[in-house]
Amino acid sequence: MTRRSCAIYAVGIICAILLISGIGLILGQVFRRFIHNRLKKEIVLVEGSRVFESWKTPPPPVFMEYFFFNVTNLDAFLKGAKPEVEQVGPYTYREYRYKDNVSMVDDDKMVSAYNTKSFVFLREKSVGDPAVDNITTVNIPAWAVMNKVKGSFFKATMVSIWMNSLGSGLFTTRTVDELLWGYEDPLLARIASTSPDVEKDFGLMYKKNGSNDGEFIFHTGRQNYLDYGRVETWKGQSSLTFWNSNQSNSINGSDGSAFHPLLDKNERLYVFTPDLCRSIHMEFEKDVEVKGIPAYRFTPPRSVFASKEENPANEGFCVTPQECLGTGLLKVSPCRKGAPVVASFPHFYLGEDRYAAAIGGMSPKRQHHQTFLDLNPTTGVILRANKRAQINILINRLPGFAKTRSINETIFPVMFLNESVVIDDVSAARVQKLLLIVTLVSNFPLIIVGLGAIMLLVFIILLYRARKQKTSTEEDTSYSPVNDKEKEDPQNGTYIGLTAKMDPQD
What we know:
Helix content: 25-40%
Number of helices: 14
Largest sheet: 13 strands, antiparallel
Radius of gyration: 39 Å
Shape: elongated
Distance between the termini: 57 Å
Strand content: 25-35%
């Protein structure tokens, strides 16, 4: 066997090995399973893991924008007219968040932490000065007190007298700073003098700058990657006590800061939100791209705040059968000390049309008012997010308070917030590098098949050239006559030339 033949056989054998092994690896998903198992082990909330430090101190900047609704026809509204409001904002703050008092629990199966947040005002991203700009809006402390005592004629009468003497009306005009971070309310101060458990100060974000929502215990994901970041307990409780069903009181999902890797479009993501005193779910909407990184967009569907008629599972969120609101609203008074606070999406987005129609100035738009999460499906990393929520007050006629006689029941918007984040360039580069490694490892069998295909092509070329050369050699070694006599010889076509014998005598 010649060297050339050996080379051809060797190429053929290598080609067969590459193609068979490559196709076998593809069908068996060996490398894909390997890299996915590696991700499940790497993305866990334990010391030294790839994500632990960024989970404790997220690097991308978070911005909190506040938009207020300024009442423009207060006198007419108090006489029964439709309220008109003007949106004022944003007042933007840089939100610094980090996990405090982090400690491992139950042999690294869980981790305890406090979500601490602080806010710094950004003048260049705001419409004005929060210390100067005034907003006319619902007097929330007054409505909270009136709702608290409406069942008692004596208490209602006393509160009504105090309000008249203190000049506390149904609406108030305050600066943005006061509405957000707190001010001393005269009615609350009067009540606090006899009831020490009552705070005399009020603010929508009162005591929330530099504070936390209580202790969370999270699953690290070591036992099951699907549990990565899932909340086990909040404030020592594995379920809530605000609502009227076990399902409504369940604490489901993460706190919104971490999601498990290897996401599926068909799964439902749960997020527990202390501000709403409940868990909500999000569903896949569409594929997007953030800084060149592929992502799945998840968003809360209409069913999250649907009425009990539209979604019977939400019946547990009714404070009482008589206080069950329509689609798009959630009354959170059980966790707001009885205050008639109602949560919704901004401008009553995804709510019944009647709520937006009842307030002049409402214009719900998905682009500006939708809550969404853009998550990389391979790593579960948050690439972009917008959490949007609106605070409303339920105002209506209350027995014992003459000032409310002309008030029609209204879900009155006070403020909405937009908490947003986009992955920073450094973190994006790390994610892209990790995705490149995952892609290369996952597609390594394809590379093997590709090499096998190249070797197959080389094998075919070598076979073709060898066959061509063999044909050429056979043609070169075939018989041909040496002279004209040979051509003309009738004897078997053979002519033997003999030299004449020399006479030895010559």
